[in-house]
Amino acid sequence: MTLPRGESPRRSRAVVADAVVPSNWTDARWRGRVRGRLLAWFSHNARRLPWRDDPTPYHVWVSEIMLQQTQVATVVDYYQRFIAAYPTIADLAAADEKQLMRLWEGLGYYRRARSLHAAAKRLVETSGGVFPESYDEVLALPGIGRYTAGAILSISRDQRLPVLEGNTVRVYSRWIGLRQDVATAAAKQTLWGVATAMLPRVGSSRFNQAAMELGALVCKPKGPLCDQCCVRAECQAHRLGLQDQIPGKVTKIEYQSRREFAFVIPVDGGGFLLARIPDGQRWAGLWDFFRWTDGDVPDAAAAAMALTRRSGIDVRPTRQLMTIQHAVTRYRITLEVHLADAVRLADVAGNPERLRVVAREELAHWPLNTTGRKIARMLTDQQDAAATKPIVRRTARAKVRPPSD
Ligand code: SF4
Q: Which residue's C-alpha comes closest to atom 1 of ligand 1?
């Protein structure tokens, strides 16, 4: 190649590389070859998954919501328990929120469960619990975006709709050798174009599932198994040796460290004080031990004072029980769990929707987040039973209603 006068070879290579616009996917013969090889592979390699046995719109909907941000291996048991508890949309609409959140406990991203519940209620009100057939109606339901609407209708009803999620973004980027950052609008437009063009006239259900399955089992984020891949002969990333660099670099996440504090408050009579996490907060709808998560405080005493100001219940830490390290989004959290004394517990009886005293043996039935469950296990395992005996006394003798549901 002749270089323009005055330009270094390095600069010219960069310009040439940036100028590459993937075009193989615009060739109908290439698409036909890739489609045929992928579908043949899928016939022999599709995993047996419970929502594939009977792919009704409701089953696919529940599975797709659960699979957002969550691995298939984790979802399977949750899905089976969920469908057993709520076999129809009407059953889900009539679900008790506490029971629903308990079933979802551990899956994370709890807004998904509340959106499912809200959407089921709306469907019962508007259509007698029948799932809609139109893409726009599905897209209008709470918690359903472009990808999920396409996935539900293509998989359950074989509508010719594309899907683009983590697996297919990676697979299609590699098939076409896309070197752009996939977060850019231009890259997304290209990928939606590929996802649409690849669909067969009939059989979008199988094609979409096959593409996602290839991403999950073969075209993995790190170390794709190109030697075993059914489409390697057609794959531009493999041909160029760029499979480890495509999709383009993801911006590095800057993790931040922070300390948070939880307080185990025993109440005489053998229970522990739990608070319902309000809407709009992390883990909304679950229950939790008293916990300070809202920013930096120097120690447990300061966290307790902040909680006291907010709740009106005077929280007084007595000693530390345990430390839990965990991560939430970009935060690396050190959670200090303290035993605490408390006064002015009269508020509990007057506010059963927000505060409850829960007996040690009942903790297993309450929906808690992951660290709340660890604390509950520590209490129920009796590891520190002596220390958590009700050293705290209610200064106001309030009658506390036990959980009724
Ligand atoms: S050849 Fe490699 S990079 Fe290309 S689709 Fe297959 S596994 Fe992915």
A: 232
From the list 64, 213, 260, 336, the catalytic residue is: 64
Mean pLDDT of 30-46: 97
pLDDT exceeds 80 at position 233: yes
> Is-catalytic flag, 260?
no
What pLDDT, in 10s, does the model give residues 95-107? 999 999 999 999 9
For residue 21, with 0-12 CB atoms within 10 Å meaning exposed, 13-18 middle and 19 or more buried, which class applies?
A: exposed
Ligand 1 mean position, distance from CA 48 (Å): 23
Please state whether beta strands 355-359 and 271-276 pair in parallel, antiparallel, or not at all (unpaired): antiparallel
**Alpha carbon of 234 to ligand 1 centroid (Å):** 9
The count of other CB atoms within 10 Å of the CB of residue 343 is 15
The CA 39 to ligand 1 mean position distance, Å, reads 15
What domains sit in the chain, N to C, each tagged with a CATH number? 18-240 (1.10.340.30), 256-380 (3.90.79.10)
Q: What is the pLDDT of residues 111-136, one digit of tens each?
A: 999 999 999 999 999 999 999 999 99
Q: pLDDT (tens digit, 9 = 90+) per residue, 263-289? A: 999 987 778 999 999 887 778 889 999
> Which of 45, 174, 178 most suits a substitution to test ligand 1, by most atoms within 8 Å of the C-beta?
174
Q: In sequence order, what are the residues at sequence separation of 6 or more whose Cβ sits closer than 8 angstroms to the Cβ of residue 257?
A: 331, 332, 333, 334
CA distance 342 to 324: 23
